[in-house]
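Review session, final week

We close the course with one last complete record, chosen because it touches almost every idea we covered. It is Efflux RND transporter periplasmic adaptor subunit, a protein from Butyricimonas hominis with 329 residues. Go through it on your own first, then we will talk.
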Amino acid sequence: MKEEKKVSGKVLMFTGIVIIVFLVAIFGFIFWEPVPEVIQGEAEATEVRISGKVPGRIEKFLVDEGDRVKKGDTVAILDSPEVLAKLSQAQAAEDAAQAMSNKAQKGAREEQKAMAYQTWKKAQAALEVARKSYERVQKLYEGEVMSAQKRDEAEANYKAMLATEQAAKAQYEMARNGAEKEDKMAAEAQVNRAKGAVEEVSSYIKETFLVSPIDGEISERYPKVGELVGTGSPVMNVLDLEDMWVVFNVREDLLGDLKMGAEFTGYIPALGDKEVRLKVTYLKNMGTYAAWRATKTTGQYDAKTFEVKAVPMEKVEGLRPGMSVLKKI
């Protein structure tokens, strides 16, 4: 009897365990929810590098990392004595070209103009005497009182005085008008060329004052004060936090509803799982280097990875570049 009771007790215990396991399995099947798979992305923003066109040493920084700046704000000043020296040279060349142009435009000195004028007047007086002499000799010749030889000599002298007067007048006009038109134009062109050189160097002077090309936030500064930077070397970065997006690297079998123009909801863990509506604006294969290789040779394929960019449909306060954004599948 005792053994029968022991066997019966064991049976009851086993049956109870089976029933409990069965009930737990039913309960788990009904109420268990699988943990959803998520795709992780990262927030990014437009970043612009600030650099100069001229080499120099960092003389002063006007902003620190984290400061907000407006487009056109001066953020750093470079010290470039070579550019200042070139400006002095260009200004001296402009002054010399301007002096030459003034000389060409003004013409001869006042003393030279007066001398040429007096020479012309003298030639006019001599011409008048020669004209009257010729007219008197001509009348005498017509009255057969003067020989033809004398008449010819008087006529030749009159014509010579006429040519002399015209030459003197031309000399005076040249002294009064200055250089020829072509010479004046050449001198003026030299002035314009020199002014262009000054403007060019002046533009380099302006480049020693580095300005922000956009509204944004200073994210990073590279050199220190006193360090030498070359042409085009980045000095600092500016983040445009108004132009942000999220990048997901998604295996192609997980793309699902991530199509061009599709809208979906993401979650930002850093902001307390804050929900954000995103819209897909870019979808591109990342290439064979980002392919997921099959583990089996039968019934499998190489799953490629796609880069998906999505932009927030509304501004998200507190979202910073580098923050994770999750999407549930």
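Two points worth writing down before the exam:
The mean pLDDT is 78.
The chain is about 45% helix and 25% strand.
Good luck, everyone.
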